[in-house]
Amino acid sequence: MNGLFKAETVIISGGLGDIGRAIALAFAEQGANIALCDIFPVSHASDDFIDVLTRQFNVKASYHQVDVSDADAAWDWLMSVESEVGVPGIIVANAATVTLADIREIKPAQWSREIRINLDGAFHLSQFATERLIFYKKPGRVVFMGSWAAHAVHTHIPAYCVSKAGLRMLCKCMAMELAPHGILVNEIAPGFVDAGLSAKVFNEDSSAKSEAIQKVPIQKLITATEVAQQVMMLCHPLNQHMTGSTLLMDGGLSLKC
Fold this sequence. Notes:
Number of helices: 8
Shape: globular
Oligomer: single chain
Distance between the termini: 38 Å
Strand order of the largest sheet: 3-2-1-4-5-6-7
């Protein structure tokens, strides 16, 4: 399986988070060139991670500070990726944020920011990147980082739920329109991941992690590496027919809703 994605370029938003890094490592291990962005400035941490990708896996890799909710910034980044790394054939819209506040507590600015990052940011990146694939007459894959919260009510994170529900319909609309161009668009919808945004919740509430494990029918949390492996499965060259679909990996949580 080594080299499965050799000569491919994978573009990942939210690339310095736990899940973004895991996805980058998984694809680089299989020979893909990697382009990452996040809201954090270039630093020793980002440079060190890029160094790991290039030295350990002998692939091209780059990092840029980008707010994907800014359409112009997303476009500029994509143009930089084309010149520095290559035309992305695999687009992973992973950038997201979460606000712990119910409907009565959440502020208008918090609501707006979350929708802009989680939904608008995914739209900007995927729209621009797939336009370039069509321009070059290349097939491709788009993976949206969704959530089981798209269909299950979480009263403490309503903006997150709404943004992920919107993302799911965006996935379906894009899949329908892009299918004739050989571009497959899918969503991966994890449940409780012991990383990323879920880990942020667990860190703020010491009892939340144990409670989450008890809620999951299989009694296990998902790792960032496991999410990355499922993203790779959606992008596998043998996947020629799955598009507009949601890959739900929630350990059975949805069976209880």
